[in-house]
Every structure is written in C-alpha cells, then in structure tokens.
Amino acid sequence: MYRRFSLILVILFFCSHAFADIYYWIDKDGVKHFSNVSTPESNIKVIKEKEQLTSFFPKEINETGNFEVLKVYDGDSIKVKGYNLIFMVRLVGIDTPETGKSSYSGQPFSSEAKEFLEKNIAGQKVVLKSYGMGRYNRQLAEVFINNININLEILKAGLAEVYKGKPAKDININHYYDAQSYAKKRQIGIWSLNSKEYKSPKQWRKEHPR
C-alpha cells in the first residue's frame, strides 16, 4: 500500500511539470516520438498536429546520466535527448554573454562561453535537475556531468554572471553568487573587462531586441 501511494505521488508530481505544445510524429519504423522543438525534416513521416502532452519529466533525474546533449546554442542554451523526448534546456541561474547576428557582433566572451559548454558536455550524457518551464518552451535546469554542476563551473570560469531576474523556486542561489565571486576576485573572463567594455547580458538584450 505504501509503495502504491508513493507511486501515485510521483506520477502527480511528474504531471505538474507537463510540457506545452508538444509535437509528435511517427518515423519510418512506426515509432512515435515527442518533442517540444521543431519537427524533423520532411523525409520522415510527420503528423502535423500539436497536442498537450503530460510527460514524465522528474524534478531530479537519477545519477546515471539519461540525457544526451545534441546541440549547444550558446553559453546557456542546449538541446538534449532522452526518454523519447527532444527538448531545449536553459541553464538555470546564469546568464552568459549574448552571441551576435549578421547585423551586429556579439558580446565579449560569448564565443568562449559557448566553447566551454561544447568542450565539457557536447555529445555527452548529462543529468538534469529541473526547475520547471521557462520562456520559449525551455526547461530550466541545472546540468551535471560526473557530479559536477556545469552551471556553477561556467560562473567560476568567468563566462557568465548570476541571472538578474527572479531566481527559480527552490534553487540555492547563494552557491551561484559564491561561484561568481570566485571569478570576480580573480578578474577572469568577463570580469577582466572594464566598465566600458562589459555590459550585463540583460542590458545588452534590451539594446539589441530580437
């Protein structure tokens, strides 16, 4: 009875973290796939519909490393695959320098921040600790590899600042400020820039709306 009750609680908890606007399609082998990002190329049979899908996305994944990093977009945004899902992840608690567009260049150290993630987690299996859904249908998460919190490591490397918005619920934001202080004291990465050279990513986005 206790196990059954615990299972019900787990299912209810998982359901509270449902994905919105999930695409689904059937591949050439008849396997059904789900994703909250764009559907595959046209060479795969696609069901052109959206559905609200209650997906089992636990608050904290176990330590076996269940998600493969498919793509690194920049210093704080990645795409992962696991449990027949492909979805976007925004590294919670941090803000890395913004990359540029064809019409303007990015911020200093934006390419270094992206390269940091590529070197450490691209193509690797990672563990995610989810803090719910953020903007643009992305999961907010801490990313772990070999029990190392990559969110904190990129702060220690001076390639990110603590996110200036409201902290995610239940995150230990003090750890993030400690990691940021480590880099600031050593004046590494973005903290090696003077006040004229450095601008908060949040301010930079206001000045360069997409």
Keyword list:
about 210 residues; alpha+beta; OB fold (Dihydrolipoamide Acetyltransferase, E2P); five-stranded mixed beta barrel; two-stranded antiparallel sheet; 11 strands
Question: Can you offer a commentary on this structure?
Answer:
This protein has a five-stranded mixed beta barrel. A two-stranded antiparallel sheet has the order 7-11. The chain is globular and about 45 Å long. The model is unreliable at 1-21 and 42-64 (pLDDT under 50). Strand 9 and strand 10 (148-149) form a beta hairpin. It has helices at residues 2-15, 110-121, 150-156, 173-186, 201-207, and strands at 19-26, 32-35, 50-53, 67-74, 77-82, 85-91, 94-95, 125-133, 139-145, 148-149, 161-162. The protein starts with a helix and ends with a helix. The protein is an alpha+beta fold and 210 residues long. It has one domain (59-207): Beta Barrel (OB fold (Dihydrolipoamide Acetyltransferase, E2P)), CATH 2.40.50.90.
